[in-house]
Amino acid sequence: MSVLLAISQMSPDVWQERLRTLLPGVEVVTLGEPFDRRSVHYAIAWRHPPRSLTGLPNLAAIFSPGAGVDHLLRDSDLPEVPIYRVVDADLAGRMSEYVVLHCLLHLRGLMRELGHQRLHRWMPDPLQPAAHDVRVGILGFGVLGQDAAHKLAHIGFDVAGWSRREKRVESFEVYAGNAQLSDFLARTDIVVSLLPLTSETRGILNKKLFAGLARDGRLGRPVLINAGRGGLQNEADILEALGDGTLGAASLDVFETEPLPAESPLWSHPSVIVTPHNAAMSDPDAIALCIASQIRAVEAGEIPPGLVNPTLGY
Ligand code: NDP
Ligand code: OXD
Fold first, then answer.
1. Within a domain: residue 305?
2. Same domain, yes or no: 143 and 244
3. Distance 169 CA to ligand 1 centre (A)
4. Which of 16, 120, 292, 307 lies 20 to 30 angstroms, CA to CA, from 172?
5. Above 90 in pLDDT, residue 126?
């Protein structure tokens, strides 16, 4: 039995080395070498080359080394086998670091202060709001959204979530579905997007959504943080909303086109922070452990965490 690594934008070597140690007796092959296609039972795929997962007659499951699976589901030739995504504390912790960092940065007006520093201006703000004065709303209240919510709440932020289905999450108000989106937005000063990219969520971060955010918040104007996927956002609408004051600032980790083209006005906008899709990177040490345990569970006839519903797209 072998595991095929079909990954791009990451070096396969380190993954191959980790998986060989974690799955003794299992061959771990890469696309760059000759291998027996019949022996491949599992594939680990990240932005795999077109058709690289076809012609594997014994393929039993595909694993994404990231939390998102939009990169897999856009492959019209994807074999119809179960897909598993990463559910892992290390990845969730990294995303929460990003979300907490950016919520605090906007809370404390750090972009403004860095501007003052560049001009050698000593300009203390009037009394800044405290975390408990600011309402954070997390679009996508799944594994990553809930981890970030707990950490933000620990600092004092007033946090709520929005998910597709109604659900109870202790300590948080959870709004669900389109029917409750406007109430959720109306109580939100910082909107954090941790949604997967699906046919339902594509383009959701648009001027209509921005216009629904709270206008009475202590930050003055609402703030957008998107670390989900670039396809969720309409960048022309973000720029327009920043221009007309519908939004006060944005932290963007993901973009409609990646890498973000050099000519994008987002790069130099004074109220935008651009990061290069690295809010939560997959650490081979942690994620190889996660996938090895998913493979062992599948081999034992169990369904490990992270099973994707391809119809829903996440
Ligand atoms: P989960 O599947 O655990 O959570 C997804 C959440 O989104 C769920 O709460 C789900 O609702 C909600 N959701 C999905 N569709 C809709 C919809 N139509 N309307 C309302 N809510 C919806 O995923 P994770 O938290 O693990 O990951 C989220 C995303 O973060 C990934 O898909 C990926 O795109 C992105 N990501 C980005 C990274 C980066 O570095 N920038 C790194 C890692 C992930 P419900 O609970 O009802 O199912
Ligand atoms: C992921 C990512 O989906 O890194 O995990 O974008």
1. no
2. yes
3. 15
4. 307
5. no
Q: Is residue 179 part of a domain?
A: yes
Q: Is 277 a catalytic residue?
A: yes
Ligand 1-lining residues (CB < 6 angstroms): 66-68, 95, 140-145, 162-165, 194-198, 200-201, 227-229, 253-254, 277, 279-280, 314
Check 168, 229, 269, 296 and give the catalytic one: 229
Residue 307 lies in a domain: no
Assigned domain for 190 exists: yes
Residue 30: the pLDDT is: 96
Lowest mean pLDDT of 9-13, 69-73, 224-228, name the range: 9-13
- For the question of residue 202 being annotated catalytic, the response is no
> Residue 53 sits in a domain of what CATH number?
3.40.50.720
Range of the domain at 101: 92-274
197: CA distance to ligand 2 center in Å?
Answer: 11
Asked whether residue 238 falls in the same domain as residue 141, the answer is yes
Report in angstroms the alpha-carbon separations of 275 from 15, 20, 160, 252, 308.
25, 33, 25, 6, 27
- Quick: pLDDT tens for 133-179: 999 999 999 999 999 999 999 999 999 999 999 999 999 999 999 99
Residues listed for the chain:
314
Q: Which of 64, 96, 164, 258 to mutate to test the pocket of ligand 1 (most atoms within 8 A of CB)?
A: 164
184 and 204 belong to one structural domain: yes
Query: Which stretches does DSSP call E strand in 103-255?
Result: 135-139, 158-163, 173-176, 190-193, 223-226, 249-252
Q: Are residues 220 and 265 in the same domain?
A: yes
Q: Estimate to the nearest angstrom the gap between the alpha carbon of 156 and the chain centroid.
A: 23
Rg (CA), the chain: 21
